[in-house]
Amino acid sequence: MNSDFDSYQLSEEHQALREAVRDLAEKEIAPHAADVDEQGRYPTEARDALVRAGFHAVLIPEEYGGQGADELAGCIVIEEVARVCASSSLIPGVNGLGLTPILLSASDELKKQVLPSVASGEAMVSYALSEREAGSDAASMKTRARRNGDDWILNGTKCWITNAGESTWYTVMAVTDPERKAGGISAFVVHSDDPGFVVGSKERKLGIHGSPTREIHFEDCRIPGDRIIGAEGTGFRTALRTLDHTRPTIGSQAVGIAQGALDIATGYMRERKQFGQALAEFQGLQFMLADMAMKVEAARQLCYVATSRAERGEPDLGFISSAAKCFASDTAMSVTTDAVQLLGGAGYTRDFPVERMMRDAKITQIYEGTNQIQRMVMARSLLK
Fold first, then answer.
1. How would residue 356 be classed by pLDDT, with cut points 50, 70 and 90?
2. Which residue in 73, 79, 299, 383 could disulfide with 331, CB within 3.0 to 4.6 Å?
3. Cα 240 from chain centroid?
4. How far apart are the C-alpha atoms of 80 and 196, rounded to whole Å?
């Protein structure tokens, strides 16, 4: 036995980060989670607490005023916040998603325009890829961008935009050359004050009620020419690279939701008595709990491996990133459903958080690519 063997464990810094985020989440986010869900309001308490602690956008490099954390740290933050409130976890989660195309492909000048305001908490950033008729088939998008002098003019509509209306910056994919199909898509950064940018009404959703989802419209929206991310025609490639890095963060959100439900179910089984003994004494329920915990731990490890490989810049991330997102989100749906079952009638009421967690878990199987798409990505990676 070698107690110094550290080849497969979190660093002391990552462990300390988990403890700090969990403490903040339990003290400053969890007490508001039920009201945020019930009222369908934006979790301002969570935003303010995360900004004060510097946990709202940890991936921004120090040179732009950020924490300079790695992608594993970003996953840990999202996981620990999601353990108590999935809606609140989309503050660091969506900042990470919106920032990644900029971090991967933008010029240093564009980074200097955007990143400091996000690092300070003055602004947040959302990601705009999907359209009503271009979800899983994102390359068939209709939003257009054309040159006009030194500027770009955007027209079209993006849908399912998380935290739209709360964010200041938006990374947007638009067609600049329709003849080239996916090779004619470019990436841009749009500011909420740009003329012709319009935010639509909120969607009425099953879960994550505290995170607004809206359409955004570009009506001859004029942006400066230097707000293009990378070279013209590289936007779709940037979008796919982005998802390779961010799908494990959705997996980590799912792990956090599942862990929160598992913790509540475990505590309830210890306290609740039936037939003269605690639920924890019934072997059939013990087996349910064991299966739940086993899946959560497996999902966590898969997400950590995927995001660590992305941090190292390894090639061919498609399989591992999709596997992490797919397995973890399926786990979250399974574990939260079982948690509701273990709590019985109480679990079906809003007096316990597991019903909220079950509703929130569902979206993790859908956004950033449905799990059917993830399985296609994995199969193609295996068969190529």
1. very high
2. 299
3. 15
4. 38
The answer to whether the CB of 324 falls within 8 A of the CB of 305 is yes
Distant-in-sequence, close-in-space partners of 272: CB < 8 Å, separation ≥ 6: 278, 279
Taking the mean position of all CA atoms in its chain, how far away is CA 133? 22
pTM score over 0.85: yes
Do residues 153 and 222 lie in contact, with contact meaning Cβ atoms separated by under 8 Å? yes
Q: How far is CA 252 from CA 24, 90, 284, 360, in A?
A: 18, 11, 28, 14
For 18-75, write each residue's pLDDT tens digit: 999 999 999 999 999 999 999 999 999 999 999 999 999 999 999 999 999 999 999 9
pLDDT digits (tens, 9 = 90+) for 141-153: 999 999 999 999 9
Half-sphere exposure of 213 (CA within 13 A, CB side): 15
| Secondary structure of residue 216 in the 3-state scheme | strand
Q: Which residues of 94-107 are buried (b: 16+ CB within 10 A; e: fewer)?
A: bbbbbbbbbbbbbe
Are β-strands 213-224 and 197-202 bridged in parallel, bridged antiparallel, or unpaired?
Answer: antiparallel
Helix residue spans in the chain (DSSP H)? 12-24, 30-39, 44-53, 71-82, 86-105, 108-119, 235-271, 283-311, 318-343, 354-363, 371-383
The answer to whether the beta carbons of residues 275 and 266 sit under 8 Å apart is: no
Nearest by Cα to 140 from 130, 152, 150: 130
For residue 157 the two structure tokens come to 């509509």
Helices 235-271/283-311 angle, 10° precision: 150
Q: Which of the 8 DSSP states describes residue 9?
A: S
Rounded Cα distance, 162 and 173, in Å: 15
**The residue count for the chain:** 384
Q: Which residues are catalytic?
A: 368
